[in-house]
Amino acid sequence: MADLAPSFLTARWVHLVMLNYEVDPTVLRPWVPLGTVLDTHEGRCLASMVGFQFLDTRVLGIGVPFHRDFEEVNLRFYVRRELDGEHRRGVVFIKEIVPRRAIAWVANTLYNERYVALPMDHSDALERDHGAVRYRWRMGADWAELGATIAGDATVPPEGSEERFISEHYYGYVAQRDGGTVEYRVEHPPWAVWQGIEPHFDCDVASLYGPDLAPHLDGPPSSCFVAQGSEVTVRRGLRIP
């Protein structure tokens, strides 16, 4: 893998709540970066609300004080890129929420990502069966919330499962202001996941994500699970031809 780009960021991602929704592909197509196409699982186009913790975050090997441990909540969907017979499966972020303005500024400036900085907090008790995890962010005077309760033991899902499809997209794609696309690789081992029960998503979806997505995210998710997470490496982004 000598052709890999240098590492840009390392961290531990833990306790990833993933609420997954079936979405009409016509709603997502305007967000698809040039050079990629929508990726589907068993013919279904999915988008995921994801909340998780960044721990021991380092950019170019350096840990910035007060910016190493923090929450993130994002809305993402799934694409793929065909390259010399290889199927590169990736994610596209519609919006990412973090509690630090500097993090949002760096991501938006360097990669044209869609970060916003809002007050956030979290609580979790996932070390025991039937524990729960919650992520919150404040919009104006109100708090929005994403969470789930777990059931059973955490196991690595089988190949071909929806959980594997959701958790194993190892590329990110970002549309650029000039119409081009940047691709970056995300490396981590397969994640063990808990079954998610009692999913919870309380948010003014239309205000945060727009009226087109609101009908698809306002109801219960089609599936829910919580991934344990792991150490991750995010490599520097490269512009694709």
Q: Can you give keywords for this protein?
A:
52% strand, mainly beta, 241 residues, 12% helix, single chain, Acetoacetate decarboxylase-like, seven-stranded mixed barrel
How do the SSEs run, as a string of H and E? EHEEEEHEEEEHEEEHHEE
What is the CATH-assigned architecture? Beta Barrel
What is the beta-strand fraction?
A: over 45%
Integer average pLDDT: 91
Counting DSSP H or I runs of 4 or more residues, the number of helices is: 5
Alpha-beta classification: mainly beta
Q: Can you summarize the main beta sheet?
A: 7 strands, mixed, barrel
Distance between the termini: 20 Å
Give the overall shape.
globular
Q: Which strand order do you get reading across the main beta sheet?
A: 1-3-4-5-10-11-13
Tell me the quaternary state: single chain
CATH superfamily caption: Acetoacetate decarboxylase-like
How many domains is the backbone divided into?
1
Q: Provide the helix percentage.
A: 10-25%
CATH topology: Acetoacetate decarboxylase-like
Unreliable sequence segments: none
Radius of gyration from CA coordinates: 17 Å
Tally of DSSP β-strands:
14
